[in-house]
Every structure is written in structure tokens, then in C-alpha cells.
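Query structure, 285 C-alpha cells:
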């Protein structure tokens, strides 16, 4: 009955694996590019040992991630030549924490989608089977019916049926305790999704402020200030704001959807618990 709880972390584990493997993929790309120095303009440090593979690879990797080496490689990739890749490069360094925020939000959204979808059951059918088992075969049969059904509703009914021999008060208390535990599980991850909704735009605004500072520095350093120079700097600075909003808006919609699903589960748990207590009272159990 509780397998669905443990297996719900599979999606989260897969997402974390993708997030962790991304830097490894970039490192592998750096190694591939380092084999062909003519592909990307690497800076060779004075005094480097040219005939040493280890030293050469270390120097190439260091230069790859400094002084625009990575961006030079990224611009040559298929993604870098696309519109999204170009905007990512123009957005500057703050696009990386925005990308990490988007990935984290996607991980929790996919995990909640998978978990809450598996938690949904036909409550009418479940209550009918439990009532039928109670009337025909007794409490043990109803307990087995709950054990064969996954989800929070079956879990709280199972907890109540296990305390049937101790009286209605014990049943109600067991249902309340199990309900609190199941509620905590259903709401797990929603705080992280809400954090992504808040952090995404703030990172975007921070990137915009940083971009505007750099743009005004460029304007101050230029002797001939043109409208093109001002417009280019401002447009690049606003890319991070747009990215933060693009992350926050769908994440906010998903968060509202999950909150609605959890509220629906709460109503169903209250209704089925009341029906079970009434059924046990009528049967004198």
C-alpha cells in the first residue's frame, strides 16, 4: 500500500541525475574540443609543456572556461546558433542561476505530477468495496482491501480499521493521525515550487540591474554614445527579466494546480473517513 510513496522519489532522483550530469557533459565537450585546437581559439599560457598530454589538457580545459572560451564553443554548437541559445549568451552570467532554477522547478513539478497522479483513486468504488467486505467478511477483509489500494485515502481508512477493536474514539484518532501524515506527504515539494516562483523573477531583476550597470559603464567609456549602443545594452539586460518571468509564470500555474489537487484530496479524505465511522457504528464494530 505504501509502495507508491517510496517510488514517488524515482522521478526526483532522475531529475537530480540529469542536473548533476550536466557539468560532466560540458567537461566532456571541453575534452573533445581540446583535441582539435583549431576549432576553438584557446590561449596557451607561456611556459606550458606542449608535448605533455596531461598539462595540455589541463591548460586547454582552464582556458575553455575562461576568457570566453566556453561561450566561443557554445556559439559554434547547434543550440548556440539557435535563437534561444543566442539569447542565453546575451543574458550573461545570471542566465546560469536562472537555468538551475528552471531545472529545479521542473524536477519538483514532474515529481509532484507523477506522485499525485498515482495517489488518485476512485473513492466511491473503494468505499463500496470496503462496505461490502465489512458486511460480508468482516474487518480483516476490509483491511486487505485497503492494503491492495494505493494512495492517501486508502492509507487513512486502513489506519482506522486497524483500531476498530478499540472503539470509535480510537478509530477517529487513528484516522486523524494518519490524515496529518498523508497531508504532509501530499504537500511535500510545494514549498520548493513556490520558492522557484519567487526566486525566478528576483534573479531576473538582479541580472537586469547587473546588465544595466555594465551598459552604463560601456556608455561612460565610449566617447561617441549612439542610440544603438544604449538600446543594445538595455535589451541584453532585460533578457534576464524576461527569462525569470518565463520561469515563474508556468511554475506558478503548476503550483496553483497542485494546491487544488491537495485540497481535493483533503475533502475526499474527510468524506470517506466520515462514511467509514458511520458504517462501523451501524454495524456495531
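Result returned for the query:
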Amino acid at each position: 500500500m505504501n509502495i507508491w510513496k517510496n517510488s514517488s522519489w524515482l522521478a526526483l532522483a532522475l531529475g537530480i541525475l540529469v542536473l548533476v550530469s550536466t557539468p560532466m557533459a560540458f567537461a566532456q565537450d571541453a575534452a573533445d574540443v581540446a583535441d582539435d585546437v583549431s576549432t576553438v581559439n584557446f590561449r596557451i599560457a607561456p611556459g606550458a609543456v606542449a608535448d605533455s598530454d596531461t598539462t595540455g589538457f589541463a591548460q586547454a580545459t582552464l582556458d575553455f572556461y575562461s576568457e570566453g572560451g566556453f561561450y566561443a564553443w557554445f556559439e559554434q554548437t547547434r543550440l548556440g546558433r539557435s535563437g534561444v541559445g543566442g539569447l542565453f549568451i546575451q543574458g550573461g552570467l545570471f542566465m546560469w542561476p536562472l537555468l538551475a532554477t528552471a531545472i529545479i522547478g521542473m524536477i519538483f513539478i514532474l515529481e509532484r505530477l507523477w506522485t499525485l497522479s498515482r495517489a488518485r483513486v476512485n473513492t466511491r468504488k473503494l468505499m463500496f468495496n470496503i462496505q461490502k467486505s465489512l458486511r460480508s467478511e468482516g474487518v480483516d477483509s476490509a483491511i486487505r482491501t485497503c492494503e491492495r489500494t494505493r494512495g492517501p485515502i486508502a492509507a487513512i481508512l486502513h489506519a482506522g480499521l486497524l483500531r476498530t477493536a478499540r472503539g470509535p474514539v480510537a478509530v477517529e484518532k487513528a484516522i486523524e493521525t494518519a490524515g496529518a501524515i498523508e497531508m504532509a506527504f501530499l504537500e511535500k515539494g510545494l514549498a520548493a515550487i513556490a520558492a522557484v516562483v519567487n526566486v525566478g523573477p528576483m534573479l531576473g531583476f538582479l541580472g537586469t540591474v547587473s546588465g544595466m550597470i555594465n551598459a552604463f559603464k560601456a556608455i561612460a567609456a565610449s566617447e561617441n554614445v549612439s542610440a544603438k549602443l544604449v538600446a543594445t545594452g538595455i535589451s541584453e539586460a532585460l533578457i534576464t527579466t524576461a527569462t525569470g518571468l518565463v520561469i515563474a509564470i508556468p511554475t506558478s500555474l503548476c503550483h496553483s494546480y497542485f494546491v487544488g489537487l491537495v485540497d481535493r484530496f483533503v475533502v475526499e479524505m474527510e468524506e470517506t473517513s466520515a462514511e467509514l465511522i458511520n458504517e462501523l457504528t451501524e454495524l456495531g464494530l
